[in-house]
Amino acid sequence: MKILVCISRTPDTTAKIAFTDNNTKFATDGVQWIINPYDEWYALVRAIELKEKDASVIIHLITVGNSETEPIIRKALALGGDEAIRVNTDNQDPFYIASQIAAVVKEGGYDLVLTGKETIDYNGSSIGAMVAELTDTNYISLATKFEFEHGKAIICREIEGGEEVAETTLPLTLSCQKGMAEARIPNMRGIMAARTKPLKVIDPVTVDTYTETVGFLLPPPKAGVKLIPADTPELLVKLLREEAKVI
Amino acid sequence: MNMSILIYTEHQEGKFKKNSLEAISYGVAIAAQKGIDAHALVIGETTAPLPELGKYGVKKVYHLNTANINISDTKTMSVLIASVSTQQNCDTLIFSNTLSAKGIAPRVAVRLKAGMVSGAVDLPENNNGFCVKKNVFSGKAVTEIKVLTSKIVITLNANAFEVKETGGSAEVITIDISAPASTITVTGINKIAGEIPLSEAEKVVSGGRGLKGPENWGLIEELASLLGAATACSRAVSDAHWRPHHEHVGQTGLAISPNLYIAVGISGAIQHLAGVNRSKTIVVINKDPEAPFFKAADYGIVGDAFEVMPKIIQAVKDLG
Ligand SMILES: Cc1cc2nc3c(=O)[nH]c(=O)nc-3n(C[C@H](O)[C@H](O)[C@H](O)COP(=O)(O)OP(=O)(O)OC[C@H]3O[C@@H](n4cnc5c(N)ncnc54)[C@H](O)[C@@H]3O)c2cc1C
Ligand SMILES: Nc1ncnc2c1ncn2[C@@H]1O[C@H](COP(=O)(O)O)[C@@H](O)[C@H]1O
After folding, report:
1. pLDDT, tens digit, for every residue of B250-268?
2. Distance separating alpha carbons of residues B98 and B157, to the nearest angstrom
């Protein structure tokens, strides 16, 4: 089985969200970059688990981004994976990114493409489904389990108010979330090995850009909390009914 | 012929989903901006009253009731939805940003060569091209996305647009397109019966590690059931297996934006806030006055949950 894991770079979950250049650019000063948690903890670790069970599994990582994303892909390689591909571009349009990944999928003949549930900065939840459409494969979003036995893929995914189990065959594209695997931390051996693993930089294929970012806004700050004394919680209930009008 | 707007409308057990009605109202409002019509698309057999969708402002309801459509197959669904929109000259497609739409809408966008905005939170603006606001950075900011294509796909966040009834009835048009053979077989569905799905809930009562253990969740459940609210929890709680994983909200869990979010014994870590900070009214109950959650709250009680919660429950009961 040949697996492609899609890795994206996001600001650390505690990063301060601010904007520069007249609110058109994310302020990167002092921001720590991490592997998007869903890509790391669930997509990549599940791929590594599959390889641990079956040594013939091949894992490639892909990231679509400029040279600043390289530390992240090296970090991902330190966790596992055989080699990485970086498509060199600054374009952020989801269709453009998905088209780059799809081109690599077609060229490389991957059986399984794993993405995270969503990027925690763009929150699109769309790249995986777009890649599936562009490569004409089945797509299951929000997968919490993936098993592959005797040529059959068994997947659990989250649905409203519960879970659904489905069976299908490869090739397949999945977006991964909690449940798929347990987060790991890279060890020294992995970090050393990552230094010599191949990281191929390729040029993007030519495709249209469908959307562009105009600017950003921060939500208006809260007015401040109204504190209610602990011995009169019935006052809270009254305010929720009469002032906030939510109950 | 004029282009129109198509809203994919989900249904369950003979009812339209509330989030889909929000999407309809949103689509109808965009149609009004552009001076065109909005139509609904319903897929699969249902006893839900199709003409009644007209009271939310759609002119036609396209009903695709071909037997044996595998609605869990994103490939099948995207082929069907894209075909109807092309056949019926619809250039703008609206979905509610539901769990199932996340699998379907981007595929439809690719099929139609449409620019897509996922998780829209407001009506588009047309002063400088077609621009839509969407949530980014897990609710910590909003971005404006300009769609450069003539066809457009938008998924609307839950609770981001109010359902509006305008009165009227819609013409129901039955469409028969055969679905491509599906290669996905659903072998099981586990649903927690009677529970209000968190993603659709207007009110949510949520518990954190401050509740000490799963045996104390009666406090959360009783208040939730009195208010008609769904229950949720922090990640620390689901990691400790006190509560099921699907209840966990935040950066790595579900992002929700109910009208009311009551957080009990939750510290308010930034990753937790990322999933709930778009709630309209936030109430925090925590014994530590320094808990970061108070900074994001509208109402707060500094106190012991085990003393405060029974009193709140009683006060809600007294409301009748
Ligand atoms: C990358 C990353 C992603 C994460 N994603 C998420 C996420 O999606 N969702 C999430 O929730 N967390 C997430 N976390 C974890 C998050 O940082 C916090 O650790 C977690 O939210 C803490 O849960 P808690 O508030 O229930 O527990 P604690 O932090 O232990 O807080 C318990 C609170 O209860 C209060 N308390 C104690 N006793 C009482 C009492 N008797 N009455 C009233 N109050 C009481 C305490 O004062 C305290 O504030 C993530 C962390 C990381 C690093
Ligand atoms: N620039 C990128 N390069 C590689 N993979 C990406 C990129 N952006 C997003 N992805 C993958 O697609 C998933 C969903 O992203 P999104 O649709 O932006 O929420 C992520 O979790 C990643 O696995």
Report:
1. 988 888 989 999 999 999 9
2. 8
- Identify whether A236 is part of a domain: no
Chain B nearest-CA distance from A183, in A, is 12
Using alpha carbons, list the distances in angstroms from residue A199 to A67, B93, B187.
Answer: 11, 40, 40
Query: Has residue A78 been placed in a domain?
Result: yes
- From chain B residues 70-89, the ones with a CB under 8 A of any chain A CB are 72-75, 78
pTM of whole model > 0.95? no
Q: Which residues of B touch A174 (CB under 8 A)?
A: none
Q: How many domains does chain A have?
A: 1
**A11 in a structural domain:** yes
Q: Is residue A240 part of a domain?
A: no
Cα–ligand 1 centroid distance for B308 (angstroms): 19
* Domains of chain B from N-terminus onward: 4-175 (3.40.50.620), 203-319 (3.40.50.1220)
Q: Measured between CA atoms, how close is A220 to chain B, in angstroms?
A: 10
B34: phi > 0 → left, psi -120 to 50 → alpha, else beta; which? alpha
ipTM of the complex: 0.93
pLDDT tens string B76-116: 999 999 999 999 999 999 999 999 999 999 999 999 999 99
* Phi, psi angles (nearest 5°) of residue B153: -120, 130
What's the CA gap between A3 and B155, in Å, rounded? 29
